[in-house]
Amino acid sequence: MSAAGLIEFVSGELARPVSPAISAFAADIAARGGAGTVAVLFYGSALRTGETDGLLDFYVLLDDLAAWDWGRPARTGARTLPPNIEYAETSGEPKLRAKIAIMSLAQFRDHARAQSLDTTIWARFAQPCGLVWRRDEAAASAAAEAVSIAVGAAAWWAAHLGPPSGPAGEFWTALFTRTYASELRVEGKGRPGSIIESAPARYAALLPLAWTAEAIRFAEGAGEALTPAITPEARADAERAWRRRKRIAKPLNLARLAKAAFTFSGGVDYIAWKIERHTGRRVEVTPFQRRHPLLAAGPALWKLWRQGVLR
After folding, report:
1. CA atoms of 229 and 15, how far apart (whole Å)
2. Which 8-state DSSP code applies to residue 166?
3. How far is CA 35 from the centre of its chain?
4. What are 104's strand-pairing partners?
5. What is the value of pTM for the model shown?
6. Contact call for residues 13 and 48 (beta carbons, < 8 A)
7. Residue 228 forms beta bridges with which residues?
8. Phi and psi of 228, rounded to 5°?
């Protein structure tokens, strides 16, 4: 198995420059973990579009969860159901706002593997991301290796759940259609295709590298078609494994949303903002929900589920 080509690709992608304001914001966030902060990853729609009027998405990776400045309940939550989610904003203008996820580097690596029951890490980090802060060059290498694990996991599932043969984009679209449908998301059904259409050459180049890293043999045919050597038995096993992950995905998302409302200031307002931004449907947050976010999160999310907002 050779992952060198994949790691080189990921390292180059992570090193792409971002605006100085975003880099400075990431550095301020990283400082909260002191010397225990390994790296800050930047991903999501703001990275793809360059727009900064919404929430930026950062992942903070730590050597140890004890490095972060939180209390015991939040630290317990980070150990049992990572990552913890918090909100941050800059003090100057133009104001930048961010949703930050905090977990250890070891947790990230574990959740990024194809064997993980949690699909969220590899589904997100198979998409473009940037390394907007790193402690040193060794930390940059560790972050690139960790993201490469996520890309390899996504490619493994794409080979086993995707079409028998086709262009790379069809494998990625099939995969993201599955992951978006399994999670508690508010984006429209066309979202998986739009992700691939935003960078088709990137996904076409990435899939062969990731399959090679995962020791998946494949043939290249006419019209950019790729044919992975996956037996019917292996596909059937993967389908059964995927059904198990699909069953737990939305309950896991609900648990994380409820925990997020409890572990960071403004959590309920963030959930409401997220839903309104993606659906155009305004969610009124009551004073009770702000005072008791953990008690309010479950019933509020259940109501939105019944109304068809979170499907």
Report:
1. 33
2. B
3. 24
4. 62
5. 0.84
6. no
7. 218
8. -75, 145
What's the one-letter identity of residue 257? L
Beta-bridge partner residues of 102: 60, 84
How many angstroms from the chain centroid is the CA of residue 231? 29
Give, as one character, the DSSP assignment of residue 82. Answer: P
Determine the Cα–Cα distance for residues 191 and 244; give it in Å rounded to an integer: 23
- Tokens coding 89: 């904003």
Task: Give buried/exposed letters for 98-115 (b at 16+ CB in 10 A, else e).
Answer: bbbbbbbbebbbbbbebe
Q: How many residues in total does the chain contain?
A: 311
Cis, bond preceding 83 (omega within 30 deg of 0): yes
Spell out the domain ranges in the chain: 4-248, 249-306
> Are 61 and 143 within 8 A, CB to CB?
yes
Per-residue pLDDT of the chain (311 residues; tens, 9 = 90+): 478 999 999 999 999 999 999 999 999 999 999 999 999 999 988 998 888 888 899 999 999 999 998 877 788 889 999 999 888 888 878 889 899 999 999 999 999 999 999 999 999 999 999 999 999 999 999 999 999 999 999 999 999 999 999 999 999 999 999 998 887 554 555 566 688 998 999 999 999 999 999 999 999 988 889 999 999 999 999 999 999 999 998 888 888 877 766 666 555 666 666 666 666 777 777 777 666 655 665 666 566 556 555 55
Determine how many CB atoms are found less than 10 A away from the CB of residue 17. Answer: 9
How many CB atoms neighbour CB 189 within 10 A? 9
- The H or E element that residue 97 is part of is strand 97-104
User: Exposed (0-12), middle (13-18) or buried (19+): which is 1, by Cβ within 10 Å?
Assistant: exposed
Look up residue 224 and give its amino acid.
E
Q: Find how far residue 108's CA is from the centre of its chain.
A: 10
* Tokens, residue 84: 């913890």
